[in-house]
Design a protein that fits this description.
Blueprint (H helix, E strand, L loop, with lengths): L1 H20 L8 E6 L7 H13 L3 E6 L6 H21 L2 E4 L4 H5 L7 E4 L18 H9 L8 E4 L2 H11 L6 E3 L4 H7 L1 H11 L8 E4 L11 H7 L6 E4 L15 E2 L6 H4 L5 E4 L4 H7 L4 E4 L3 H6 L7 H5 L3 E2 L2 H10 L5 H10 L6 H14 L14
Parallel strand pairs: 1-2, 1-3, 3-4, 4-5, 5-6, 7-8, 7-10, 8-9, 10-11, 11-12
Helix pairs in contact: 2-16
């Protein structure tokens, strides 16, 4: 295939250029945060970098930029971005990523560079990486682009999720560390702050029962979101629809139905009395705050086929798993929620919920910034 040889040639030239960057000295207290999930640093990146800077004298470089897919932008935007990434990869002691990154995986790095993969989702409900490859063409592209290669360590929030991550990333158990994303701590420490922020913008929400619906992204198949919206049209509840950022579908919003685009899903969890989702990691984030979680899995059979599921949400949520909007609505308004369901779900898939940022930073310092040539105490801040 011509694509295969084009990829090989491109990687060869990238490594050729990178070999020049590698002549530059490594800054042994430089930490690079690299992501293509968003154009803004995630709450996890912000909390980790802040804690690192508080604990020791590190130089933090934050590079978060979505990869351009339009042909006219690939040359003029992606190439300069890759060159900047290569420079910082060649001169950093630690790199932290939250997803697949081309320059991290295809380049031949200095031995002194430690790369941590923290993944951008708290859970691993949907299959991704090597488990999501369905066709010979997809497998060929993944192999040539060295998908998820070069990680020194991969953080997993629990032993259960580590099992999924091993297959999805293609690594043995010795590459994994048990560590939870900082957003877990953020949800707890900023719950009251976020609640007041939302109430200031929407004072009408005070003393109301609020339902938050946060579905995952769909680029194919049927979308039955409108059915759920319609169920709450004339109810006493405030219904907040928080669509995935990549969702382009426009829905008919009734009175008492809001989108609250000024706030993130994490912020809106603070005011939610009930959370409805499907195959998104938001189910675990809601469980952190002990919110009643309902699964609206109307296309569960399709999702089981593509991209596939790492674990069975029907089994995890039992009577709170629905394929029908009317039945979900009836359960939510008429039945008392059994909190044991979300507590068991959280305890199974997230092992640590206290001081998680500090614990992750301690590991990054120990395994990334400290080696035979570098004593972490050299960077320790003095009061």
């Amino acid at each position: 295939m011509i694509q295969k040889y084009l990829i090989k040639i491109s990687i060869f030239f990238l490594n050729l250029i990178y070999s020049v960057f590698k002549l530059l000295p490594m800054n042994r207290n430089k930490v690079l945060f690299l992501s293509r999930q968003s154009n803004k640093p995630s709450i996890d990146f912000r909390m980790l970098s802040s804690q690192l800077e508080e604990d020791c004298d590190v130089k933090v470089i934050m590079m978060t930029k979505r990869i351009e897919k339009r042909m006219k932008d690939v040359l003029f935007k992606n190439v300069p971005l890759f060159l900047r990434q290569m420079y910082h990869l060649a001169t950093s002691k630690v790199c932290i990523v939250d997803g697949y990154n081309i320059t991290v995986s295809v380049l031949h790095h200095k031995k002194g560079l430690t790369i941590f993969q923290i993944w951008h989702s708290l859970g691993a409900i949907k299959k991704f990486g090597y488990l999501a490859l369905k066709t010979p063409y997809q497998k060929m592209i993944a192999k040539e682009l060295k998908m998820h290669k070069n990680y020194s360590y991969i953080f997993a929030p629990s032993k259960e999720i580590r099992k999924c991550f091993q297959a999805c990333f293609g690594y043995q158990e010795d590459h994994f560390l048990i560590g939870t994303l900082p957003r877990v701590e953020y949800l707890k420490t900023h719950n009251r702050i976020n609640k007041e922020k939302v109430y200031r913008k929407y004072p009408y929400f005070r003393n109301k029962k609020i339902v938050l619906y946060a579905p995952t992204f769909r680029n194919q198949g049927i979308d039955r979101t409108q059915e759920l919206i319609d169920m709450f049209a004339d109810s006493k509840y405030i219904f907040i629809l928080k669509s995935h950022p990549n969702t382009k579908t426009k829905y008919q919003l009734h009175s008492h139905v809001y989108e609250c685009k000024e706030f993130s899903t994490l912020q809106l969890l603070s005011i939610a009395d009930y959370v409805i989702t499907d195959y998104s990691g938001i189910s675990l984030e809601a469980a952190v705050l002990k919110k009643p979680v309902y699964i609206y899995g109307y296309d569960f059979k399709d999702y089981e086929k593509d991209p596939g599921m790492n674990y069975d949400l029907k089994n995890e949520f039992g009577k709170y798993f629905f394929t029908d909007a009317k039945k979900l609505y009836h359960c939510l308004i008429h039945e008392k929620y059994d909190k044991k369901v979300v507590n068991a779900y959280l305890n199974k898939y997230v092992e640590e919920t206290q001081d998680v940022t500090q614990k992750m930073v301690d590991i990054i310092i120990e395994k990334g910034l400290t080696d035979e040539k570098t004593d972490y105490r050299l960077f320790e801040k003095t009061s």
